[in-house]
Design goal:
single chain, alpha/beta, Rossmann fold, Alpha-Beta Plaits, 2 domains, 6-stranded mixed beta sheet, 4-stranded antiparallel beta sheet, 14 strands, binds adenosine-5'-diphosphate, binds magnesium ion
Length: 316
């Protein structure tokens, strides 16, 4: 079996600020991220996401527990881990007195890339992040979203085996966000692994193979968006309209589907939309409702699941 990109076992972190109460930020987090995966770490402000990323990227020591990166222990051998990772820190800022082009190039050189390779990678990253027009302006003159793009460009240019991105698209416009998504997908196609945090659940939904929801220092659920929806108990809604007398006069409701009528709109909820749709269409045909032309199927979004799990305190 190949070693996972990241393997965390029972990681705990208690902050002990001077003259203030202790903060138990992580209470035993175990997580495995496979090579080439994109995993989204989600959770409310203060859930412990940044703390986890800092520990995994050798910037902070855990109180207990263990994290290995491609088999290297982050505590015992940080020097083995650092060349394998690259980090977009939360609220990081580029060097104000450099331009985006200089920033990316300089960072690549400090990581040991040759002049030639650093130059090529810099141009690619500038292009991918749409920074062409501002590439030679001082970072200090850039807008917040452009600075953030410069930060992401710096990190993606490394094509490091494992990338940590803490809220990478914060402040970006929708086009820039898509640029980041495309770049991250391209990186994983080339073999990199990505662990990112985000509060944009549509972003997590489109980008992440799996999400892990942190709540109060613990991982509450981890899995695909579908898995999380099942755990949250959120359902797909099927809706259609029909003249009310027809609906009211229908002989029987479809087996196992509770159809709720509101005026001419009928709706029902299901975990399993395939069989439910077949059932519904058979029922419609038997009741003279035709093909239910305006039938709509709304799958639950990750946001639906998240709100359910997090506000409920989640499954035990
Ligand atoms: N240096 C620190 N000292 C004391 N408490 C901290 C420190 N850093 C973070 N915390 C606390 O740890 C908890 C988790 O924070 P953080 O990991 O930043 O959460 P998130 O990134 O999910 O918003 C919060 O309660 C936060 O206030
Ligand atoms: Mg954070």
């Amino acid at each position: 079996m190949t070693t996972p990109a990241l393997s965390a076992r029972e990681v705990k972190k208690v902050y002990r600020p001077r003259n203030r109460p202790e903060v138990p930020a992580l209470k035993g987090v175990s997580l495995e991220v496979g090579r080439g995966e994109r995993v989204g770490l989600l959770g409310r402000n203060g859930a412990g996401k940044t703390t986890f990323l800092k520990i995994a990227s050798t910037l902070l020591r855990p109180t207990s527990g263990e994290i290995t990166i491609f088999g290297h222990d982050v505590m015992a051998h940080p020097e083995e881990v650092r060349p394998l990772i690259a980090v977009v820190p939360q609220e990081g800022k580029p060097f104000f007195h450099l331009t985006p082009r200089e920033q990316v190039y300089t960072y690549l050189r400090t990581r040991g890339f040759s002049r030639e390779s650093a130059r090529t990678r810099t141009e690619e990253a500038i292009e991918q992040m749409g920074l062409g027009e501002v590439a030679d302006r001082l970072n200090v003159t850039l807008s917040g979203g452009q600075m953030q793009r410069a930060m992401v460009a710096t990190i993606i240019a490394t094509e490091a085996p494992l990338l940590f991105l803490d809220e990478p698209t914060i402040g970006m416009d929708p086009f820039a966000r898509r640029g980041v998504w495309d770049s991250l997908r391209r990186l994983t196609r080339k073999g990199s692994t990505i662990l990112l945090t985000t509060h944009y659940l549509d972003e997590a939904e489109r980008l992440a193979d799996r999400v892990a929801i942190l709540q109060d220092g613990r991982i509450q659920v981890v899995g695909s968006v579908r898995h999380v929806a099942r755990r949250a108990g959120v359902k797909t809604t099927i809706k259609f309209t029909a003249p009310q007398p027809v609906l009211a006069g229908a002989v029987a409701t479809p087996a196992g589907l509770a159809v709720v009528l509101r005026g001419e709109v009928a709706s029902c909820q299901t975990d399993n939309s395939g069989p439910a749709l077949r059932e519904l269409l058979d029922w419609a045909a038997a009741n003279g409702l035709g093909d239910l032309d305006d039938l709509s199927v709304e799958a639950p979004t990750l946001e639906d699941s998240y709100l359910q799990l997090v506000s409920n305190g989640g499954p035990q």
